[in-house]
Amino acid sequence: MHEGVLKRNNVKVFGHGTQPMLFAHGFGCDQHMWRFLTPAFEDRYRIVLFDYVGSGKSDKTAYDPNRYGELTGYAQDVLDICEALQLTNTIFVGHSVSSMIGLLAAIQQPRYFDQLILIGPSPRYLNDQPGYFGGFEQADIDELLSLMDHNFIGWANSLAPAIMGNADRPGLGKELTDSFCSTDPVIMQQFARATLLSDNRRDLSYLQIPALILQCADDIIAPQPVGEYMHQHLPKSTLRYMKATGHCPHMSAPTETIELMDDYLTHAMVA
C-alpha cells in the first residue's frame, strides 16, 4: 500500500537532514513550484515533495470526486504520505489552500507534525459580515466558478496573473497560467469549489501545533485582515508581514520567504 501512495502522489524525497520538511503546493500547482525554496533547506532537512491526486504528475486514475469534493480528502493525501514514509516531527510547509489542508491533517493526526508554515493561508474566502472579511462576495465566487465552467482557458488567463501579482515580471504569471491550463478542467473545477466554498474558521482553535503565518502585501486571495484573523484564532501562531506582493512569495520572493522561515525555525529550535 505504501508504494502505491508514493506513486499515486508522485512523492519525491531528497536532502541530507533527518527532520522531514513536507512541502504542499497550492491550487492549480504542483511540486515544481517549490524549486526556489528547497535548495536552501536540503542540506539540513529531509525534503518531501508530492502532487495532490489530480495535480502535476500524480496518478489521475486515483481521482475520486467524492473523496476530493472536500478539503478533508486532500488532507488524507497528506496523512497517507506521512504514514507511508513514517514521518515524525515534520515541518509542514503549505501554500494557500494547502495551509488549511495541512491544518486539518495536523488536527487529525498531530503525532506526525512539529511545525506548520502557512504561506498565504485563508480559513474562509467569502466575506461574512459583520466581523469577517475574506476578500470575496458570493457573487464574485459564483462568477469565477461560472467562468471556469464555460471558458476554462479564459478563466486561467485572467485569474492566474492576478493571483501571482508582480505585473512587472510577466513570466511568473505565465508560469501559473500554464500550470492551471495543464490540469484536467473537471478536476480543477471541483478543487476550486472545495477551496472557495470551504469554511475552516471553527477548526482553527483545535490546532495545537505551532504555526508561522506568512502574510503578503497586496494579496487578492488572502488579504491582510485574513492573516490577522488567522493569528488571532490559532492558539500557537506567529504572524510575519512580508514585503513580497501577490499570493505566491515562494516564487516571486523566495529569498525573503527563506529568511522568514529560517528565522522562525531557528527560534523554534531554541524554544
List keywords for this structure.
7 strands; AB_hydrolase_fold; about 270 residues; 7-stranded mixed beta sheet; globular; hydrolase activity; alpha/beta; Alpha/beta hydrolase; Rossmann fold
Describe this structure in words.
- Keywords: Hydrolase.
- The chain is of the alpha/beta class and 271 residues long.
- 42% of the residues lie in helices and 15% in strands.
- Strands 1-3-2-4-5-6-7 form a 7-stranded mixed beta sheet, sandwiched between helices.
- The radius of gyration is 17 Å and the shape is globular.
Summarize the structure.
The chain has 271 residues and is an alpha/beta fold. It has 10 helices and 7 strands. The protein has a single domain, classed as Alpha/Beta hydrolase fold, catalytic domain (Rossmann fold), CATH 3.40.50.1820.
Strand order of the largest sheet: 1-3-2-4-5-6-7
CATH architectural category: 3-Layer(aba) Sandwich
What shape does the CA trace take? globular
- Our measurement of the CA-to-CA distance between the termini, rounded to an integer number of angstroms, reads 38 Å
For CATH, the homologous superfamily is named as: Alpha/Beta hydrolase fold, catalytic domain
Low-confidence stretches: none
GO molecular function: hydrolase activity
Keywords: Hydrolase
Protein name: Alpha/beta hydrolase
Pfam families: Abhydrolase_1
List the helices and strands and how they pair.
Elements: H1 2-8, E1 12-14, E2 20-24, E3 46-49, H2 71-85, E4 90-95, H3 97-108, E5 113-119, H4 138-150, H5 152-164, H6 170-181, H7 185-196, E6 211-217, H8 224-233, E7 237-245, H9 249-252, H10 254-270
Parallel strand pairs: 2-3, 2-4, 4-5, 5-6, 6-7
Antiparallel strand pairs: 1-3
Helix pairs in contact: 1-2, 2-3, 4-5, 4-7, 5-6
